[in-house]
Amino acid sequence: MPKRKSRPVLHAATVMALLAGSAYFTYELRKDEQAKVPAVQSVTDGLQNSGGGATGKESWERLNNPARSVLRDGKGAVIATFTDGARSATLKGPSRTFAEPVNTSSRVVTDDWVRLMPEPWIKGAEKEQWFKDWFKEASGSEEDDIFAFAFQYVEGAPIKKDSEGIPYAGDAVFGPFKEDGVDRLEQNDFYDYLGISYTFRSGTTLVPRKERYRALDCSGYMRMVWGYRARFPLMADNASGDGLPRSADGMARSKTGVDIIKLQGPSPWYTRPKNIDVLQPGDLLFFKMDHRTANHLDHVALYLGLDTEGHRVFISSRKEQNGPTMGDAGGVSRIDGNGFYAGLFRSAKRL
C-alpha cells in the first residue's frame, strides 16, 4: 500500500464556523438497501432487549451497568440510549453504510447515530426543557454526526473548507517520518492538521507546527472529531482545565465521561476485559500496545459497532496506515476474537 503524501502548509488563520457538508463514506439511504446488504446489526446488551414489551406508544425505562435511560418505541424496541454522566447519546435513524474499500473489505451497516447533548444525562432528564428542545431537533436528523465526522478524514476523503478557506476535513496523515525514516512522529493534534493557532478555554494558545500540517495522531483524531467538529470541550494538555485531555492515556484516566469498561489488572500491561457486551457505538476504546510507554495506555479508537460479518470494529488513526482508518494494516480493526488489537484492548469510556 503506497504511503499517503503530505500537503503544502497553509498559513494560520482564525477559527471560523464550519461549513455543513456531506460526509466521506459510502452513504446509502435506499429503500432496497436491505436486499443488498446484511440486516442492520445494532450493538445492544441483553438488558436493553429484555424489557419494554409492545405498548403502542413510546416509553422510558431505567437500566443499570451502566446506569442509563432508554427510550422505546411502541413495539418495545430501543430507539435511543442516554447514559448517566455522559453527553453522547445513541439514537436510531436511517440506515447507513460506512466503508473504506481502499484499505479494507469490512463494512458497517448501522442505524445508530451518535450525537452530543448540550448537558450530561441524569436520571429524569427526559422531563427537562433543555432535553425536549434538543431531542426534537436531533431525533430523525440526518445532519452529520460523530460517525460522519470520523469518516471525513480517511484516505481519499475530499477536502472541505470553512468560510476562511481553511480545510477542516479531508484525508489526514498520522504524522511525518522521524529522522530514521521508519517510525512516525506522534503528538499531532487537530490544530496541527488545520494549520491554525488555537486558544483553549483555559486561556492557553498553542501554535501549529508546519511539518505536521494535515496530521492527526490517534488522540488528535478523536479531539478533531469530538472537539473541533462536535464541540466537546478540549484541554490543552492532560492537566489544566476541563474537557477531553490531549493523550490516549489522559483520556482513559480522566474523570471526563463515564468509564464503561474499567482498566483492570497489574501495570504496565493490565488485562484484557472478559466481557465487552456493554459497549455501544460511539464509545472510546483504549489499548496498551507499546512497552516503551511504561504503564500508559497508548492508543485510542472510536467504536463503530458490528460490521457485516458480525465482528466488533473500530476506526482510529494509525502509523501503519499513516492516518485514520478501519483498515487491516498493523492488525485487523476488531476487538473480538484473538487478533492484534483484540488482545491489546484494555478499557472504554462514553463521553
UniProtKB/TrEMBL annotation:
Keywords per UniProt: Hydrolase, Protease, Thiol protease
GO molecular function: cysteine-type peptidase activity
InterPro entries named in the record: NLP_P60_dom, Papain-like_cys_pep_sf
Domain NlpC/P60: 180-351
GO process annotations (BP): proteolysis
SUPFAM superfamilies: Cysteine proteinases
Similarity comment: family membership: Belongs to the peptidase C40 family.
Protein name: NlpC/P60 domain-containing protein
Taxonomic source organism: Streptomyces griseoviridis
